[in-house]
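Milestone M4 deliverable, item 7.
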Amino acid sequence: MKALSGHTRPYAVLGHPIGHTLSPVMHNAAFESLGLDAIYLAFDVAPGQLLEVLPAMKNMGFGGVNLTAPLKEVAFKGLANLAESARRLGAVNTVQFTPDGMIGHNTDGQGFLTAVRESLDFPVDGKTIFVLGCGGAGRAVAIAAAGDGARHLILADLDEARCRGVARDIASLSLPTRVDWAGASVKDWILRTQEADLIIQASPIGMKADDICPLPPQAFRPGQKAFDLVYNRPSTCFTLAASQGGAQAANGLGMLLHQGAAAFTIWTGKPAAVGVMRAALEAALYTHS
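Output delivered:
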């Protein structure tokens, strides 16, 4: 590990909890490969503390911050200056510290679109997409897909109000994507998944080894693509069920990589060392799984 000094620039990811994150692995690898005197850390910050912690970090000289659940919506509501990406997706996952203050960005949408094109050879334009889970992450990928030309979004969540909210947000952006709710039961979801070209799993289910997939193998079919936003294990209950059903499946490691690379560039003004970041993430994932 490189020596730290009083000149070392700190960066961080904040979440609650935060123990699962792999963000320090990729960012520290990128800093080292580019010869930057910087370090990336992880801190557990409760939602009620975030809007006090961020200004303190700016004053302490942090170069930038990532946010994960459940802090993205808190920052969106609390930061005065939001980039277009954050306003569009209704959440902040990247905070930029500038001489004039803090700017909230969202690189999740860009990271998602890049990852599905790369890992599944799947451009969303003109496609039908089933999104399971319409919380912060599901909302972001749904809006990103609509903005990139998805023809039809089928939203699934036990909370119908969440799905209706996403539909309203997409309509407010004057996007032509058709959006409807799949219902609140697994039986309803299985019927609707058959319509989809891509099925997205956007809930936390799958982060634990003993989690049970909300969709059984019969919800999938050959020719489909399946993408799980969960990234902390090579195979999740969702990717296993999708593969058993004949679909081509990928986990969320690519989304983590590409949203992180975009954040890196926002903070440093430099192109991210994507290959180095990818290698570091894959080594950490397969070593600890």
